[in-house]
Amino acid sequence: MTISGTVLIADDDASVRTVLSQALSRAGHEVRAASNAATLWRWVSAGEGDVVITDVVMPDENAFDLLPRMRKARPELPVIVMSAQNTFMTAIRASETGAYEYLPKPFDLTELITIVNRALSEPKSSGREMRSEEVPEPMPLVGRSAAMQDIYRVLARLMQTDLTVMITGESGTGKELVARALHEYGRRRNGPFVAINMAAIPRDLIESDLFGHEKGAFTGAQHRSAGRFEQADGGTLFLDEIGDMPMEAQTRLLRVLQQGEYMTVGGRTPIRTDVRIVAATNKDLRHLINQGLFREDLFYRLNVVPLRLPPLRERSEDVPDLVRHFFRQGEKEGLQAKHIASKAMELMKRHPWPGNVRELENLVRRLAALYPQDEISAEIVEAELHTQEASSPAALSGGAPDDITISQAVEIQLQRYFAGFDGELPPPGLYQRVLAEVEYPLVLAAMTATRGNQIKAAELLGLNRNTLRKKIRELGVSVYRASR
What we know:
- By secondary structure, the chain is α/β, with parallel strands linked by helices.
- The protein has helices at residues 14-26, 37-45, 63-73, 88-96, 109-121, 146-158, 175-184, 206-211, 228-231, 247-259, 285-290, 296-302, 319-332, 342-350, 356-370, 378-390, 393-396, 406-419, 430-449, 454-461, 465-475, and strands at 6-10, 30-34, 51-55, 79-83, 101-104, 165-168, 193-197, 236-240, 261-262, 271-272, 276-281, 305-308, 339-340, 375-376.
- The chain folds into 4 domains: 6-121, Response regulator (Rossmann fold, 3-Layer(aba) Sandwich); 161-308, P-loop containing nucleotide triphosphate hydrolases (Rossmann fold); 312-395, Helicase, Ruva Protein, domain 3, CATH 1.10.8; 413-475, Arc Repressor Mutant, subunit A (Orthogonal Bundle), CATH 1.10.10.60.
- The chain is globular.
């Protein structure tokens, strides 16, 4: 059943007003459109309209300045904010000021109509809680691609919750930056942010590091020591490289997540914990579960909100923004100001960046420090990229043959898998486990290649669209829509 209502639109671009008005009218809604904030405020304050759609930048007033007044006058009125600025801070400010939804331009009209219908059908409430504090200006995440816009919107929704988040992505994609953004712009920002890298701690010290220990708990324990859970109390605990956590520590962590309390090593009294958990990994935890190296029940405890960070090669349109950002950072640190020639920038956008954003940052810093020219040419970038590739781990180890088939790659991996059991056989059910492991990357690759178009992906895979949708839900595949 379609619920109709009156939609108020505010945008100084006449073509945007026309397109939105026509689409919403066809969907059965009454539409009133204005070119400035003053007219919109007059309508809202007079009690008109059931939903508001407004651009951020208006000729007479910024929507983020107008929103608090609208929320105060009519707290039940859903306000959808749209913007061509497309930055992380835009999404955060939209959430901070109580917007119902944030849409980066350009957006899908079908998606907009769905959001409007949802806003009209939801029970009216007193509105979302707003913060009075100013949002800090520095922007922790950079990029305007469709993939990053989806991440910004998810993060903005998570800021006012304590939900556990599992961040996945290749090394160098910025997993800790995202975790810090969740903390610094969330409800726990006044508490501590404590990070622990599971891969960097000796296995026999992980439990002591996480939960602390009492004096005399083991040889060398000269005094009581607070663990990371205690240090992070009231704040956020970031568990990086969670896939490297040993099984015995996983069992204790699961108990903490289930019961909300823990005991120090050598302790006898349970301690209540009040932390938000954000975990991250560059490994396929499903693969580790199938190998018996990661607890499935812990995975589901941590994977409440899965967030996949795309590799830089999937968002190459963000390279120019990232390059400018890193050059500006270099200037603040005393390096000479630089800019990249257009042909050099194209080379950088086409590069696969196996080290992702971290690799790009290192290159930009090197360019700023080693070259006296104000403009970095394509020849310089090409030479640096060639040197970078020649010294990469893959190049130094000989790399993998380019002509290897999928069948050969699977055979190699299975040989390594069996070898890992030291002559013993792996657990029963191997056939289904292998098929399940292949299914996830296959569906992800198809969705990535079609930029999130499920119809094209289903056709590519030879699947019914409903079957593909079911598999996306079951496998937890993150879908990024292309901007239009």
